[in-house]
Design a protein that fits this description.
five-stranded mixed sheet, alpha/beta, 5 helices
Length: 155
C-alpha cells in the first residue's frame, strides 16, 4: 500500500509539474505569436490602455503606434467565422505595420455599444492620425487589403 501511495504521489507531482510548465510555455507562445502578427483578443481594459480611453475623454485620440483594425464579432455569426481566417492572414501579412484586434461582442457589450455594433461583423479601421472608419459586413481579402493600403498605410 505504501508503494502505491508513493507511486501515486510521484505521478501526481509529475503531472502537476508538466501542467504548470506547459501553461507557462503556452503563455510565452501566446505573447510571442501576438508580437509576430497574430490577431489579438481585446477586452475593455486593453482597449482603454492601448486604443482610446473613452472614460476620460470624449474627443478621439488613438494611443497606438501602428494603425489598427478592430474586428467586432460573435462566435455564432456565420459571416464573422468566414472573415476570421482572412484577418489572421492579414495580421501575418502586415506584421509590424498594423495591429489587428478582435472583440467578442457577447463578452464585451460596452465596446460593442461604443461602436454601435448593431450588426456584425463590424470592422473599425483606425489610422495613426484622424478618425476611425467603420466597415460593416463581410468582404473578401482584396477589399480589406485595399482599405489597409489606402486608408491605414496611405500607399
Amino acid at each position: 500500500m505504501k508503494k502505491f501511495i508513493a507511486i501515486a504521489a510521484l505521478i501526481f507531482t509529475s503531472v502537476l509539474t508538466y501542467a504548470c510548465t506547459d501553461g507557462a510555455k503556452q503563455n510565452q507562445t501566446e505573447k510571442k505569436e501576438a508580437q509576430s502578427g497574430d490577431v489579438i483578443v481585446m477586452n475593455k481594459d486593453m482597449f482603454i490602455k492601448d486604443v482610446f480611453d473613452y472614460e476620460k475623454s470624449k474627443e478621439w485620440k488613438y494611443k497606438g503606434d501602428k494603425p489598427a483594425i478592430i474586428d467586432l464579432y460573435a462566435d455564432w455569426c456565420g459571416p464573422c467565422r468566414m472573415t476570421a481566417p482572412i484577418m489572421k492572414e492579414l495580421a501575418k501579412e502586415y506584421a509590424g505595420k498594423i495591429v489587428i484586434y478582435k472583440v467578442n461582442v457577447d463578452k464585451e457589450k460596452e465596446l460593442a455599444a461604443l461602436f454601435n455594433a448593431t450588426s456584425i461583423p463590424l470592422f473599425v479601421f483606425i489610422p495613426i492620425k484622424g478618425e476611425p472608419q467603420l466597415f460593416r459586413g463581410a468582404a473578401d481579402k482584396a477589399t480589406y487589403k485595399k482599405a489597409i493600403d489606402e486608408f491605414l498605410l496611405k500607399q
